[in-house]
Specification:
By secondary structure, this protein is mostly helical. The chain is about 45% helix and about 10% strand. It has one domain (about 20-195). It contains six helices and four strands; from the N terminus they run αββααβαβαα.
């Protein structure tokens, strides 16, 4: 729906969306593409990821390289999301290195392994923490949890940290309704642009 400013605004409709037969088939293709592309990306990024892991370890040798946090995945099942650690466990503050990693979204790279394993997808609704109750309620009502959570998604290219709960869920529902290779392709390249420009990242 277009607003007076000319931008597209998503309003969350009532009731779960029912995937078409073509969309159901695309989910199978999408999983194959996720496996192939994540494997290629891991091969290309193996050295940068090793360097980042080394820098994280050098910055605080007694703390783990990876940060693991429970998130809600496909069908509402919990799983542990991986990131390069960006917070000092002793103080709870973002480290100088962590600030750089977050700004460039490099802390998210370990999730490529989770895409390869099948617990995540390259494109899809971002996995939420269990305590984000309001978005969970809206997602369940819209049927969003039939999808694997994504490394990036429609909400992430439409405001990311700056989007409120209802609009997040509306973007997730819109992604579900328009599920297709074309949409995933557009989101992928829009994400690349956002990451290069370091847009919509809230440093806490």
């Amino acid at each position: 729906m277009a607003s007076e400013t000319g931008k597209t605004e998503y309003i969350l409709p009532a009731g779960a969306y029912r995937l078409t037969a073509r969309q159901e088939r695309y989910l199978t293709v999408k999983r194959c593409l996720d496996g192939l592309l994540s494997l290629v990306l891991l091969a290309l990024l193996a050295i940068p990821m090793a360097v980042i892991a080394g820098l994280v370890k050098l910055s605080s040798p007694r703390q783990p390289v990876l940060f693991r946090q429970e998130r809600v995945g496909r069908d509402g099942a919990p799983f542990l999301l991986w990131k390069f650690r960006s917070i000092d466990a002793a103080t709870g503050a973002i480290t100088p290195l962590g600030r750089v990693l977050r700004k460039a979204s490099l802390d998210e790279l370990p999730q490529l392994v989770q895409v390869l394993s099948g617990s995540m997808s390259l494109i899809g609704p971002r996995p939420l923490m269990p305590e984000e109750a309001s978005v969970h309620r809206l997602r369940r009502a819209a049927g969003v949890y039939r999808l694997r959570p994504g490394l990036t998604g429609l909400a992430q290219i439409s405001g990311r940290d700056m989007v409120d709960d209802e609009r997040k869920a509306a973007y997730d529902r819109a992604y579900l309704e328009h599920l297709s290779f074309g949409q995933d392709w557009r989101i992928f390249w829009a994400t690349v642009g956002k990451v290069i420009r370091c847009e919509d990242v809230e440093q806490k």
